[in-house]
Amino acid sequence: MIDITQLLILGAVVALGYFVFNGSRHDPREPPMVTSGIPILGHMFGMLWHGVGHWGNQAKKHPEQPIITLDMFLTKFYVITSPDLMQAVQRNAKTLSFEPLLLFGARNISGISNPKTLDILKEIDAGGQGLGSKIMHAMTPTLVGKPLDLMNIQMIRLIQPFIEKLGETSTFDLYEWCKDATMAASTEATYGPMNPYKDKKIQDAWWDFETGLGVLIANTLPWLTARKPWKGRQKVADAILKYLQEGGQEHGSELTNVRLKVSMEGGLTLEEYSKLEVGMLIAFVSNTVPAMFWCLFDLYDRQKLLGEIRKEIEANAIVVAADGTHSIDLTAIREQCPLLLSTFQEILRTRSNSSPTRLVTKDTLLADKYLLKAGNTVSMPSIPMSQRQEVWGETAGEFDERRYMNSGEKKDSRRAGGFLTFGLSPTICPGRHFASSEILLLVAMVILRYDISPVGGVWKEPAKDTSSMVSIMGPIKEKFRVNASPRKEYAGVKWGFHVEEGKGQFPLVIG
Ligand code: HEM
């Protein structure tokens, strides 16, 4: 039986197919076509059962092929698993481009429908005015250095009450707690004190939108076929519009103000900008929440490693004030806790299911060998890449918390280009430093102050929501109930955070 989540995936693939449709036949110079059992619709059904994991599964069935073609009915997917071909994709960034996906997002995720506006947002090479990518580029400098640390200062101020509450709560859902903490901290750090998401009803409406995106994205009579996420999107867009009309942005972050300025200069209306903002929050929370959850899960599940990391933070990243307050220092977490940072990246490597995607905007001969035809999609699934020994060495299939440590007991065993959790250059996640600050500060304080154990006593992986269209970090689809108890080592201690302005950046690996 096909269930609703599988229909969601189907809707998304059909939508992308229509978006890029070129109706072309297979050319013998294209990468070898692999078929699955059922003619024509086989790969569509594969997607229904396995989500985006289907690409990786197909690639694994053909290990001798560095690139394969999957016929997805209205479009073709070229699936790459070879590091050399990934580098060839990077060399052809002009014709294998991420940019058209921004327009797809504006139309199918944010619901912008005015053809004139879509033309403004469309990439310049396709005859548009390129506003979509101008907005993205304008954000990048606001997510490093001083503006980032100003956001970090707000973020931790808002996250700490959630950590304090753990001492008072008995059994709770750890995933829901990560959601609430991330949502509160990320939105207020961005939008300032008039943050429209302060209202729980707006938060709930946004989650209706996010979790129902698989149907909404098909953009086919959405008020009928995807009523709940469609209504949720409108409700949040209205709240953002009200925030802007009341001048809330004047107290918001540089990130918010830069996006607004570029959008207004580019010719968007406030209503259209508000709709784009609803989609923007996906970047802020949809990956951060599950990443935070898996960091806590993987650390508490490894008691020996947990003990070592606690010691590292205690030795290097706690400042004790004259009144006894213990503060966790962000700069020291970045620069003097190599085991924590390495473990964090290994959790991202082993838990993520990213698949950097590019659209072929012009016929391209990849590595002088494979013809990629315009209108089709290139996908580079991280799972087969994260298991390749030539990329990660003999321990590719193992969890190695010291993999990214450059000195002392462990050599650096990673190879350039294999770490795809934050995307593939030149499209690399600009929010990775903010996400890392948020996750690592929270994790550092929680593990020092609390012991956490799951109800039932076993850290058994909860089922993942493989149908998510927007998260590559394995969001879960069931409750995960735990108990937290304050550690006696810190009984009666007052806690805080310390963030120094102006340094904001992590030494992270990127693909
Ligand atoms: C653990 C958390 C996060 C992960 C794993 C993650 C991952 C990614 C990935 C894989 C991409 C590239 C997509 C592709 O190539 O197909 C991306 C893009 C992006 N991310 Fe993140 N992200 C995270 C958190 C954030 C945060 C907190 C923000 C905002 C502050 C953010 C903002 C963005 C934006 C704006 C883009 C689009 C970049 C562009 O179009 O050039 N991300 N992210």
UniProtKB/TrEMBL annotation:
Binding of heme, residues: C429
One GO BP annotation of this record: mycotoxin biosynthetic process
An annotated Gene Ontology molecular function: monooxygenase activity
Keyword Oxidoreductase: yes
Keywords, alphabetical: Heme, Iron, Metal-binding, Oxidoreductase
Cofactor(s) essential for the protein: heme
Source organism, top-level taxon: Eukaryota
SUPFAM superfamilies: Cytochrome P450
Stated family: Belongs to the cytochrome P450 family.
Listed name of the protein: 25-hydroxycholesterol 7-alpha-hydroxylase
Source organism: Penicillium subrubescens
Organismal lineage: Eukaryota, Fungi, Dikarya, Ascomycota, Pezizomycotina
